[in-house]
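Saturday, quiet lab. Running sequence design on the structure tokens for the scaffold JK sent over.
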């Protein structure tokens, strides 16, 4: 399993990037949002990744941050949503916009993505509502939904423990506020767990 790639951005296409890691070029599928965020060709780039394995292919999908990767996992868990459709949704909506759309059951917002019809949009908001939480995110959602570094890893750790994305982001943001930007991943996760369980 490849969790992330750190190397040099070799090239980009409409729906992919090639990351050169030690002389090996990894072709990575990506959303338009990730392609815009990873920086110019020739520069250092880091992508969080998800490996898709089927009988006839192995494919890497890359994300600018852990929040986008976690949303990709949630979306592809919905029947009828493959990697291509999930990336189209993540190209059209930021993670916090997607969380708001699902929390408020806004099918039309999800249907803005290419390849997502009304029926599929309805299934997505219905199936993910319990996983995301029914409370719309507040004004601080943008900062919380796009964490980087140790805070992104801490959010990912809480998601793996079964917390909803909104709960995980809120708890990690509160822990980071208390501990400061230089907090270690271990300290962030411990404090975030205490805050989330209150």
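Result came back. Writing it out in full:
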């Amino acid at each position: 399993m490849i969790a992330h790639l750190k190397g040099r951005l070799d090239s980009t296409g409409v729906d992919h990037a090639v990351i050169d890691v030690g002389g090996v070029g990894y072709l990575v599928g990506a959303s338009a949002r990730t392609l815009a965020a990873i920086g110019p060709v020739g520069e250092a780039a880091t992508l969080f990744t998800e490996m898709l394995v089927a009988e006839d292919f192995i494919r890497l999908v890359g994300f600018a941050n852990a929040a986008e990767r976690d949303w990709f996992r949630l979306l592809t868990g919905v029947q009828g949503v493959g990697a291509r459709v999930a990336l189209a949704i993540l190209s059209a909506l930021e993670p916090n916009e997607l969380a708001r759309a699902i929390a408020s059951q806004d099918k039309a917002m999800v249907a803005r993505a290419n390849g997502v019809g009304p029926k599929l949009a309805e299934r997505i908001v219905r199936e993910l509502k319990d996983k995301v939480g029914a409370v719309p995110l507040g004004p601080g959602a943008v900062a919380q939904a796009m964490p980087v570094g140790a805070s992104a890893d801490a959010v990912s750790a809480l998601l793996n423990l079964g917390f909803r994305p909104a709960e995980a982001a809120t708890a990690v943001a509160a822990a980071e506020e208390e501990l400061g930007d230089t907090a270690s991943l271990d300290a962030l996760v411990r404090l975030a767990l205490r805050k989330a369980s209150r």
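Notes for JK: The longest helix spans residues 118-132. Strands lie at 4-12, 16-21, 24-30, 44-53, 58-63. Ask whether to fix the surface positions before the next round.
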